[in-house]
Structure formats: C-alpha cells, structure tokens
Amino acid sequence: MIITVTLNPSLDRTIEIPTLGRGEVIRATASSVEAGGKGVNVSRALLANGVASVAVIPLGGADGDELAALLKAEGVEMTVVPVLAATRSNVTLSEPDGTTTKINEVGSPLTAEEVGHVEEAVLQIARPDDWVVLSGSLPAGVANDTYARFVRRLTGQGVKVAVDTSGPALAESLAAGPTLIKPNRDELAEAFGAPINSFADAAAAAESLRTRGAGAVLASLGGDGAILADGDLCAARCVVTDRRSTVGAGDCLLAGFLAAGASGRRALLTALQWAAASVALPGSGVPSSAQIASRHPDLITDFEHRGLSTST
Fold first, then answer.
1. Which residues are catalytic?
2. pTM higher than 0.85, yes or no?
3. What is the mean pLDDT of each run of 10 residues along the chain (312 residues)?
C-alpha cells in the first residue's frame, strides 16, 4: 500500500492560453479543474495504473467539497480529515510550448489539533513495509518539523517514508531519517547550499543529503531527466517533443518510482517514463499505462562530465 499525505491540498484550475502577455486581455483556448496537491497527484497517478493507494487529506470549505467530489469521481480511495479553514485554489496558465505559469495560494492555516488528526489517521492506516508519501508545502502556521515528526513515528513502526518538500521542512526531515526524498533541482540546490549546474553537482548534492539522513535521493532535473543516489549513482533522461504541461510531472516521477519497487536503475527508468508521459498531458493530468509504455528513457553513462540546461 502507498499512502499519500497532502497537508496543503488544492483545487487546481488550468487555463490554456495562446501566449502570456502581462497586462493584456487573453482568451483561453481550454480550461479544466482537477484535484491537486503533490500527494493527491501521486495517488491519482498510481490509481490510473492499478497501484493501490490511499490519499489522506485535510479538507474544508466549498473548494474542499469539490476536491473530494473530483477524487471520488476518479475512484481515488481517501481518508478526509475535516478542517475549519477553506481549501486553497491554484491557477495554472499553460502555453502551447509547455511553458506553465503557476499562481499558488499559500493555504489557510491548520491548527495543531487538526495536524494531529491527520497524523493519527495515517498511523491507523499504515502497516510495516507500506510506503507513506509526505509531500508538498506546509500550510501557514504549521511547524517546520511536522514532517520530521511524522517520519520518526512512521519509521519507528517499520513504515517506509518518502518526503517531497522544500526549505526548512526538508532540512528538518533529513535529520529524522526518511527512506527517500525527492527534491527538484532548485530544492536540491537549496538544501545543498550550492548551484546545481551539472550531473556531477547533482550527484554530489544527493550524496551530501544522504549523509545528513536520507536513505535515498531521487532528484528531478526537469528536461534534463533525474538522478538517483541509493548506494549507487545513476542518471537517466527521456526526451519529450510533445510537451504540454509540467504541472505534476515530479509527482508522476515519484509515483512511477514507487510503483516500480523504489530501488535501482529499473525503477529510475520507469519513473522517467511516467514523468515524460505526464508532461504531454494538459494541466495536472496523469498518464495511462499505454501512454507510459510509449516513452523510452535512456540511462546517462557520462553524467560526471555532463552539464545541465540553464532552464529546466
């Protein structure tokens, strides 16, 4: 079982536009509304490919009700923790070349009691050798060590924990010893304290985070691919020529990695297939098994001397 925890879920509205012009009146070519939040995206991607998952989410207000209805319509198994604050709503502006502009609300505060209810809900579901995915930003007012506390309690019960967050929440989590972390390039650079300009930089940063407590590091590098440090080092890339939206691609990368066993080169290649397939979809759409199978990633064998693109 893979259990996802999204403390800051969102109702994601994606608007497709010809081009983004500041101060202009822009006519949309298409729009969609989907349940969002990083953990929610992981659960949706897993469900679409027949992998068991439960999404644990705090929801409140009309947007929270709509988010729950969307997940129910998709058939996502979920445990909803009712909260007083309204669930946030995010907007993505997507251009034909795949450029996306995201406007994310901060998210209303959760009380310590409400966070505690989420924690207890997860502990009641999780069993030894299950995976729990803690992902996304923390809502306003939630302590930076919240994920770290979750990690300690869950790993103490034999549960494997993946953390996908940034900033102080990621730094605090490392010391708790998560099984896996999944930073993107910017998050990896921030945690490492130095720019990531090459695969060698990414490898050094990933190994550094392992010495600080992470069991394994799966770092997404945008269009350059991803790198995995789990006792071995490997990197891979999957070229995408039909890019529509990068929203949720990192979540699909993590979902594919977990679905493929969460270890080694085969899991990394599978993860890249899932991510590449998602980039070809509008909004935060999740790929089907057929769409995933059509992608053909390659291992990068010379990454020690290979630079990264300036824009990922």
1. 251
2. yes
3. 96 92 93 91 96 96 95 95 93 86 86 96 96 94 95 97 96 96 96 93 96 97 93 91 82 97 96 93 84 92 77 48
